[in-house]
Write a structure and sequence with these properties.
The protein has helices at about 80, 90-100, 115-155; strands at about 1-5, 10-15, 30-35, 40-45, 50-60, 65, 90, 105-110. It has about 160 residues and is an alpha+beta fold. The strands form three sheets. It has a four-stranded mixed sheet with strand order 4-5-6-7, with helices on one face. The protein has a two-stranded antiparallel ribbon with strand order 1-2. It is globular and about 35 Å long.
Length: about 160
């Protein structure tokens, strides 16, 4: 789980983040958006919460990027069981830096990348290499047996 801010083709910011809690159906929606506005010292209100944040940058209704000073961990699979209600939670320093660069209309692109698929490909490649090795050994044995059989026929 990462946030990147690119400006004029140059990566300005890269930070781990925590997105929507997928086990509760609060996935951060994938898509292309634009930042609606930005606000300092906002209070985020939901059904069971009211949380003050220092840097609020909404891009899809009530879903946005913001600092999450209450979190001690970001990135990895944290979102799967300890994710947000859909927002992109950032470490306070990353939110502060991002806030200084963005303005209303800044493009926001959210996408889901399944890392396990990458690992499966590695396992698949390993299996392919093992099969190729086994096939070569089988071919060598077959060739060796063919040579032995041909020798016997000529004797």
């Amino acid at each position: 789980q990462q946030v990147f801010f690119i400006k004029n083709g140059k990566k300005i910011l890269e930070s781990e983040c925590v997105t929507g809690n997928s086990s509760r159906g609060y996935d951060t929606p994938a898509g292309a958006y634009s930042l609606t506005y930005k606000q300092r010292d906002a209070t985020l209100n939901g059904e069971n919460y009211s949380t003050p944040v220092n840097y609020w940058m909404p891009f899809n209704g009530n879903i946005g990027l913001h600092d999450a000073y209450w979190r001690s961990r970001f990135g990895g699979s944290e979102y799967k069981y300890n994710g947000s209600h859909g927002c992109v939670n950032l470490p306070p320093e990353a939110a502060k830096k991002l806030y200084s660069y963005v303005e209303a209309g800044t493009p926001v692109i959210c996408y889901h990348l399944e890392v396990p698929g990458i690992n499966e490909n590695k396992d698949s490649n390993k299996k392919d290499k093992e099969e190729t090795k086994n096939n070569k050994e089988t071919k060598k044995k077959a060739e060796s047996n063919t040579e032995k059989n041909n020798k016997k026929k000529t004797e």
